[in-house]
């Protein structure tokens, strides 16, 4: 019995340390984006994914879990997710976007993510509404690639 309690205590301790040291991305609901931008303007990061995409899951579960990446994204961006196969109408920056017809992707995912006529998954979009700057990164982005991207764009990491 003591062994079970000791093992349980150790597992709980490691779990709580991991949560305290790790950071997670603060995802913003697309419905609240307009109000958030009004009260505190900052750039937007849009993660376009599908449920079946293994690379999307890798970016979400590995890249976005890295403390440096998660911290910088949460501090400097409103982060939203768009499922390209969503069947809901979405409002983005005051404009309505319809779901795709049978076998097609959501119109917002296509508008933001299409590059050279192709929509690849995942696609990570960085958009600054005030300056109208737009960057699109298609395919799986590793933490190192995103860290380099942030550094090239003058963003600093919290240590």
How does this structure look, described?
The protein is of the alpha+beta class. Helix content is 39%, strand content 19%. It has six helices and six strands; from the N terminus they run H-H-E-H-H-E-E-E-H-E-E-H. The strands form two sheets. It has a four-stranded mixed beta sheet with strand order 2-1-5-6, sandwiched between helices. A two-stranded antiparallel sheet has the order 3-4. Strand 3 (90-92) and strand 4 (95-97) form a beta hairpin. It is globular. 21% of the residues are buried.
Sum up the structure in keywords:
159 residues; alpha+beta; two-stranded antiparallel ribbon; 6 strands; globular
Secondary-structure element string: HHEHHEEEHEEH
Which strand order spans the largest sheet, edge to edge or round the barrel?
2-1-5-6
Q: Categorize the overall geometry.
A: globular
Cα end-to-end separation: 42 Å
Q: Structural class of the helices, strands and pairings? A: alpha+beta
Strand content: 15-25%
Tally the helices. 6
- Radius of gyration using CA atoms only: 18 Å
Based on DSSP secondary structure assignment, what is the total number of beta strands? Answer: 6
Helix content: 25-40%
Mean pLDDT: 87
- Uncertain ranges: 1-21
Largest sheet: 4 strands, mixed
């Amino acid at each position: 019995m003591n062994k079970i309690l000791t093992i349980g205590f150790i597992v709980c301790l490691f779990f709580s340390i991991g949560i305290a040291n790790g950071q997670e991305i603060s995802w913003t609901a697309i419905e609240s984006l307009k109000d958030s931008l009004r009260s505190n303007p900052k750039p937007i990061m849009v993660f376009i994914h599908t449920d079946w995409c293994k690379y999307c899951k890798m970016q979400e579960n590995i890249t976005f879990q890295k403390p440096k990446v998660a911290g910088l994204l949460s501090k400097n961006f409103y982060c939203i997710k768009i499922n390209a196969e969503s069947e809901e109408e979405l409002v983005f920056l005051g404009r309505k976007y319809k779901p795709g017809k049978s076998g097609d992707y959501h119109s917002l995912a296509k508008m933001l993510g299409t590059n050279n006529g192709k929509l690849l998954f995942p696609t990570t979009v960085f958009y600054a509404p005030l300056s109208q700057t737009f960057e699109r990164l298609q395919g799986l982005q590793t933490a190192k690639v995103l860290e380099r991207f942030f550094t090239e764009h003058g963003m600093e990491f919290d240590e």
